[in-house]
């Protein structure tokens, strides 16, 4: 007999299932699925998963308010799928009532995490209607007036991840405020700029009224503010949006004077302004009221970094997905990969960040912007800071970097990812943050001992970028998060990470506080991140665990064990009873003392 949930139809979407029925369903699938707090079963159904690697696989699919879970019933082919609904971009019906051919009727699901799913159902009696409508409803809750799952789940962790980043503390770590830079709270009610954080660092000589006048000349009011300062040479990285020059070539004396104050703060001979865009795009932006800094900005030089816009990046990743999922095209692999231009874009982003880091390291202050200062600008500032400051290469420091440069400074996560939104074709969608994490991964490959965190952390961050299980990446800016009470009503991703830190630590890590990292940004030295982009291919998955890393972890554990034994022996040697036993009358007196040396495991 079918369970009560299986016959749940479209006319009764909001009907409450009786508690008895719920309990029987829980018992039935308890062995398969461990539910999160607040997670509820919505519907389960016998189905056929059209697996790209094993062909058609019989089993049961379960939809909860958080995930799609499939388990094969065929003993010969063990297939399990566990997909957070937040990772679903699109749900479509496949075939119709009159479709001919085996497994031609069912559902096509496109995911944001580099995979697609296809399920075949029986054609009789509109058997897919209920599951389609329920899946559509819970995969896109905001489009149906439902809360995101982060507001529903109340999982408890040992650490509170919301406390990881405190702006004033982070500025103090950098040595601010000082006699050249001050901290201002002019934006505490988001009146200066509704997409900026409340705490900003600005030139000491600037007045509050100056900031308001500069904001009127910068796109979205995103004025140049300090992101990072070099402790020794006092050179700074400032970020902002484009100036509103327009076709008529408007000038703003306050903006020009403000950039001069940034230059004067450490007597940089010339302030370097890095415009992330190709020069053609920057010129084109004049037509819509934007533009770039011209010759009227004294003691400044403008450098275009040729990084393409969000639309180009979206299409590039789409092409990459086409060549890696479901099957990797072996015969023309290199030319196919090249045709996506993905690694070329990664190269340009890294190359731009290297230029920023090098300029600051040599004592010159820089200003970075793109159009609105929340996509390419965030990539460049955060990567340059990662190269310059070893603190950001620690596990907690990296969390601070993401909170500071991406989340607090208003990268539009909601628009770029589309959390809970059914509009899969929205032109605002773009993998800008994924590209940043890819750049970080490239750096970890080139400097395997420089980062305290491992690849698992990067994969976890990207998985929960989509999952909607945590509040960390929800909404476009701080003001929206305050309105939606994200910190009060949801859990931070860093609560999970910092409660299980040992999972995310790099065993090869060697702290080096003053070292600046300059990765090689050439196509010969960049790799496709296989364990992310091609991880759904079972042949790739088996190779994910590095045998070297595994062996090194074992050696570290062994070293820890020996050190504990050594400590215990030293304690027993120093105890009064052991000293009494080792008197000159005892037979052991002539035995030379044992020498203990700490084990050093070479890299």
UniProtKB/TrEMBL annotation:
<dbReference type="InterPro" id="IPR011993">
    <property type="entry name" value="PH-like_dom_sf"/>
</dbReference>
<dbReference type="InterPro" id="IPR016130">
    <property type="entry name" value="Tyr_Pase_AS"/>
</dbReference>
<feature type="domain" description="Myotubularin phosphatase">
    <location>
        <begin position="161"/>
        <end position="533"/>
    </location>
</feature>
<dbReference type="GO" id="GO:0030017">
    <property type="term" value="C:sarcomere"/>
</dbReference>
<dbReference type="GO" id="GO:0048311">
    <property type="term" value="P:mitochondrion distribution"/>
</dbReference>
<dbReference type="GO" id="GO:0046716">
    <property type="term" value="P:muscle cell cellular homeostasis"/>
</dbReference>
<dbReference type="GO" id="GO:0030175">
    <property type="term" value="C:filopodium"/>
</dbReference>
<dbReference type="InterPro" id="IPR003595">
    <property type="entry name" value="Tyr_Pase_cat"/>
</dbReference>
<dbReference type="GO" id="GO:0005886">
    <property type="term" value="C:plasma membrane"/>
</dbReference>
<dbReference type="GO" id="GO:0052629">
    <property type="term" value="F:phosphatidylinositol-3,5-bisphosphate 3-phosphatase activity"/>
</dbReference>
<keyword id="KW-0963">Cytoplasm</keyword>
<dbReference type="Pfam" id="PF06602">
    <property type="entry name" value="Myotub-related"/>
</dbReference>
<dbReference type="GO" id="GO:0005770">
    <property type="term" value="C:late endosome"/>
</dbReference>
<dbReference type="InterPro" id="IPR004182">
    <property type="entry name" value="GRAM"/>
</dbReference>
<dbReference type="InterPro" id="IPR030564">
    <property type="entry name" value="Myotubularin"/>
</dbReference>
<feature type="binding site">
    <location>
        <begin position="309"/>
        <end position="310"/>
    </location>
    <ligand>
        <name>substrate</name>
    </ligand>
</feature>
<feature type="binding site">
    <location>
        <begin position="370"/>
        <end position="376"/>
    </location>
    <ligand>
        <name>substrate</name>
    </ligand>
</feature>
<comment type="similarity">
    <text>Belongs to the protein-tyrosine phosphatase family. Non-receptor class myotubularin subfamily.</text>
</comment>
<feature type="domain" description="Tyrosine specific protein phosphatases">
    <location>
        <begin position="340"/>
        <end position="386"/>
    </location>
</feature>
<dbReference type="GO" id="GO:0004438">
    <property type="term" value="F:phosphatidylinositol-3-phosphate phosphatase activity"/>
</dbReference>
<dbReference type="GO" id="GO:0046856">
    <property type="term" value="P:phosphatidylinositol dephosphorylation"/>
</dbReference>
<dbReference type="GO" id="GO:0004721">
    <property type="term" value="F:phosphoprotein phosphatase activity"/>
</dbReference>
<dbReference type="InterPro" id="IPR029021">
    <property type="entry name" value="Prot-tyrosine_phosphatase-like"/>
</dbReference>
<dbReference type="GO" id="GO:1902902">
    <property type="term" value="P:negative regulation of autophagosome assembly"/>
</dbReference>
<feature type="active site" description="Phosphocysteine intermediate">
    <location>
        <position position="370"/>
    </location>
</feature>
<keyword id="KW-0472">Membrane</keyword>
<dbReference type="Pfam" id="PF02893">
    <property type="entry name" value="GRAM"/>
</dbReference>
<dbReference type="GO" id="GO:0001726">
    <property type="term" value="C:ruffle"/>
</dbReference>
<dbReference type="InterPro" id="IPR000387">
    <property type="entry name" value="Tyr_Pase_dom"/>
</dbReference>
<keyword id="KW-0443">Lipid metabolism</keyword>
<protein>
    <recommendedName>
        <fullName>Myotubularin</fullName>
        <ecNumber>3.1.3.95</ecNumber>
    </recommendedName>
</protein>
<feature type="compositionally biased region" description="Low complexity">
    <location>
        <begin position="581"/>
        <end position="603"/>
    </location>
</feature>
<keyword id="KW-0967">Endosome</keyword>
<feature type="region of interest" description="Disordered">
    <location>
        <begin position="574"/>
        <end position="603"/>
    </location>
</feature>
<keyword id="KW-0378">Hydrolase</keyword>
<dbReference type="InterPro" id="IPR010569">
    <property type="entry name" value="Myotubularin-like_Pase_dom"/>
</dbReference>
<keyword id="KW-0904">Protein phosphatase</keyword>
<keyword id="KW-1003">Cell membrane</keyword>
<keyword id="KW-0966">Cell projection</keyword>
């Amino acid at each position: 007999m079918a369970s009560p949930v299986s016959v749940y139809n479209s006319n009764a979407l909001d009907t409450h299932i009786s508690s008895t029925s719920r309990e029987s369903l829980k018992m039935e699938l308890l062995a398969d699925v461990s539910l999160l707090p607040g997670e509820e079963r919505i519907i389960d159904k016998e189905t056929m998963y059209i697996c790209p690697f094993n062909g058609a696989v019989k089993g049961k699919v379960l939809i909860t308010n958080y995930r799609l879970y499939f388990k094969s019933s065929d003993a010969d082919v063990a297939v399990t799928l566990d997909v957070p609904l937040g990772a679903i971009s699109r749900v479509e019906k496949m075939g119709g009532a009159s479709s001919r051919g085996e497994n031609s009727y069912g559902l096509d699901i496109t995911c944001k995490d580099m995979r697609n799913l296809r399920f075949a159902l029986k054609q009789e009696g509109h058997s897919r209607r209920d599951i389609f409508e329920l899946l559509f409803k819970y995969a896109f809750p905001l489009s149906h007036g439902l809360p995101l799952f982060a507001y529903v789940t109340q999982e408890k962790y040992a650490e509170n991840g919301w406390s990881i980043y405190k702006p004033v503390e982070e500025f103090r770590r950098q040595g601010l405020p000082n006699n050249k830079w001050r901290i201002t709270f002019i934006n505490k009610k988001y009146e200066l700029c509704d997409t900026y954080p409340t705490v900003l660092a600005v030139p000491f000589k600037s007045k509050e009224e100056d900031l308001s006048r500069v904001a009127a000349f910068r796109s979205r009011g995103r004025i140049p503010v300090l992101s990072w300062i070099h402790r020794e040479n006092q050179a700074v990285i400032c970020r902002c949006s484009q100036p509103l020059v327009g076709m008529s070539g408007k000038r703003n004396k306050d903006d020009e004077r403000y950039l001069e104050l940034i230059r004067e703060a450490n007597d940089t001979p010339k302030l370097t302004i890095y415009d992330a865009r190709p020069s053609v795009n920057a010129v084109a932006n004049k037509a819509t009221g934007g533009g770039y800094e011209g010759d009227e900005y004294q003691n400044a030089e403008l450098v275009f970094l040729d990084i393409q816009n969000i639309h180009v990046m979206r299409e590039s990743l789409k092409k990459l997905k086409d060549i890696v999922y479901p099957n990797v095209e072996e015969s023309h692999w290199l030319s196919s990969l090249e045709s996506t231009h993905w690694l070329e874009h990664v190269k340009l982003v890294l190359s731009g960040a290297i230029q920023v880091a090098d300029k600051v390291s040599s004592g010159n202050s820089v200003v970075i912007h793109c159009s609105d200062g929340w996509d390419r600008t965030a990539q460049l500032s955060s990567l340059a800071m990662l190269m310059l400051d070893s603190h950001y290469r620690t596990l907690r420091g990296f969390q601070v970097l993401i909170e500071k440069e991406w989340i607090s400074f208003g990268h539009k996560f909601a628009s770029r990812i589309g959390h809970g939104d059914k509009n899969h074709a929205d032109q605002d969608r773009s993998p800008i943050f994924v590209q940043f994490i890819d750049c970080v991964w490239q750096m970890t490959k080139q400097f395997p001992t420089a980062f305290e965190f491992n690849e698992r952390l990067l994969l976890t961050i990207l998985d929960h970028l989509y999952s909607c299980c945590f509040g960390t990446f929800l909404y476009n800016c701080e003001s929206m998060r305050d309105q939606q009470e994200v910190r009060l009503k949801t859990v931070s991703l860093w609560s999970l990470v910092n409660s299980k830190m040992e999972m995310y630590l790099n065993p090869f890590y060697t702290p080096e506080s003053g070292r600046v990292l300059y990765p090689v940004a050439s196509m010969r030295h960049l790799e496709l991140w296989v364990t992310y982009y091609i991880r759904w291919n079972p042949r790739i998955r088996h190779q994910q665990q590095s045998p070297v890393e595994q062996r090194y972890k074992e050696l570290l554990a062994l070293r820890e064990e020996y050190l504990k034994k050594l400590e215990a022996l030293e304690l027993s040697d120093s105890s009064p009873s052991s000293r009494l036993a080792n008197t000159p009358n005892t037979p052991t007196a002539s035995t030379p003392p044992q020498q203990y040396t700490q084990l050093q495991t070479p890299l």
